[in-house]
């Protein structure tokens, strides 16, 4: 039996869940839900990837500020090569999803002979590979998590109510959901039962939260809302953690402000490539940009929904020290 046959057999045996209206089912693998199209990339990443000391992994749940984190990290790590104020900066013409690719989509971007080819591109920093994923912490390759490896992991999470609303709206802008939107009531029930992309959400968040407490030099845990409230101090913190701290001259100048502007939701959404272009997966860039607001859940969740999700996350996060504002 070939490895492909084994993979197909394994996939067929996994528990299946509702794919939130899309054609692909969610599959339960290592206690988390993935679309079947992602699983081959996930398993090969786990099996074949060998981390370098200089590797940087950016991890998020879908619709938790992924593009924002990728943009900031790319600008920070590559600012010696690409001046942030340059009119030819890659972030002006290329989607952050193409500049910093998610590992689980290894087989969806086209023909690559190896994982190392996939994570490398003409924009790669020769001294530091930027990688991205939505995978839970416990499913990451051991070489990335090892204390003997100096690679770093940044995790950005979002208030679960806004995360749910953003994910539901995003998936309703794809595939069959465009003409027949997936009902919010069904999506909410699935979400609260843990059946969501790379969920259960609380388990995904807790995995990185606990890792950041155990090894803060290895894992940096950030909240979307904190970034919104104090962007400059968090960009400085991010640069320091990544090993690319700002010099005194840069701090006196406009570098930090330029990075914040270049990576801001409003600016990114205004770019022509994010209005008309598409990423390597064939998905239109514009569907990644909706509001980017904190608290938009107030406009779309009922009182009973709010009470249920607040109660659920209070229960699931109890004793962890992690709190989301209600």
Which descriptors apply to this entry?
326 residues, alpha/beta, 3-stranded antiparallel beta sheet, 16 helices, 43% helix, 9% strand, globular
Helices and strands in order, then pairings?
Elements: H1 3-13, E1 16-17, E2 26-29, E3 32-35, H2 36-48, E4 56-60, H3 66-77, H4 96-99, H5 115-119, E5 130-133, H6 142-145, E6 152-157, H7 160-171, H8 184-192, H9 201-214, E7 219-223, H10 224-229, H11 231-242, H12 248-252, H13 255-263, H14 265-270, H15 272-276, H16 303-316
Helix pairs in contact: 3-11, 3-13, 11-13
Give the structure's gist in a few sentences:
It is an enzyme of class 2 (transferase). The chain is an alpha/beta fold and 326 residues long. It contains 16 helices and seven strands.
Number of helices: 16
User: Biggest β-sheet, characterized?
Assistant: 4 strands, parallel
Q: Give the uncertain stretches in residue-range form.
A: none
Morphology: globular
Which percent range fits the helix content? 40-55%
Residue share in β-strands = 5-15%
**Structure classification:** alpha/beta
Mean pLDDT: 87
- Radius of gyration in whole Å, from Cα? 19 Å
Read across the widest sheet, the strand sequence of neighbours is 5-4-6-7
SSE string, helices as H and strands as E: HEEEHEHHHEHEHHHEHHHHHHH
How far do the termini sit from each other?
A: 52 Å
Kindly describe this structure:
It is an enzyme of class 2 (transferase). It holds the Pfam family Sulfotransfer_1. Residues 53-321 form the Sulfotransferase domain. Belongs to the sulfotransferase 1 family. The structure is a single chain. The chain contains 16 helices and seven strands. By secondary structure, it is an alpha/beta fold. Strands 5-4-6-7 form a four-stranded parallel β-sheet, sandwiched between helices.
């Amino acid at each position: 039996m070939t490895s492909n046959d084994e993979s197909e057999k394994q996939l067929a045996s996994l528990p299946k869940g509702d794919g939130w209206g899309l054609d692909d089912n969610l599959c339960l693998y290592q206690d988390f839900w993935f679309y079947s199209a992602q699983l081959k990339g996930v398993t090969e990443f786990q099996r074949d990837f060998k981390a370098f000391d200089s590797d940087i992994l950016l991890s998020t749940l879908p619709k938790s500020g992924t593009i924002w984190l990728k943009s900031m990290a790319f600008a920070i790590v590559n600012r010696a090569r690409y001046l942030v104020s340059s009119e030819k900066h890659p972030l002006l013409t290329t989607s952050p999803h193409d500049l910093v690719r998610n590992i689980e989509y290894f087989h969806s971007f086209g023909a690559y002979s190896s994982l190392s080819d996939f994570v490398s591109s003409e924009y790669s920093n020769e001294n530091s590979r930027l990688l991205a994923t939505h995978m839970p912490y416990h499913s990451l390759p051991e070489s990335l998590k090892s204390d003997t490896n100096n690679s770093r992991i940044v995790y950005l999470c979002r208030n679960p109510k806004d995360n749910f609303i953003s994910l539901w709206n995003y998936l309703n802008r794809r595939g069959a959901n465009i003409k027949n939107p997936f009902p919010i009531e069904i999506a909410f029930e699935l979400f609260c039962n843990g059946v969501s992309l790379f969920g259960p959400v609380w388990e995904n968040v807790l995995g990185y939260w606990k890792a950041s407490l155990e090894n803060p030099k290895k894992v940096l845990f950030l909240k979307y809302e904190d970034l919104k409230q104090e962007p400059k101090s968090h960009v400085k913190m991010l640069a320091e953690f990544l090993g690319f701290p700002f010099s005194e001259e840069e701090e006196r100048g406009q570098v930090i402000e330029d990075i914040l502007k270049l990576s801001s939701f409003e600016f990114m959404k205004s770019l022509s490539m994010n209005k008309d272009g598409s990423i390597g997966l064939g998905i239109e860039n514009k569907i990644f940009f909706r509001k980017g607001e904190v608290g938009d859940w107030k406009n779309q969740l009922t009182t009973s929904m709010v009470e249920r999700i607040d109660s659920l996350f209070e229960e699931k996060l109890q004793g962890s020290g992690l709190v989301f504002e209600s």
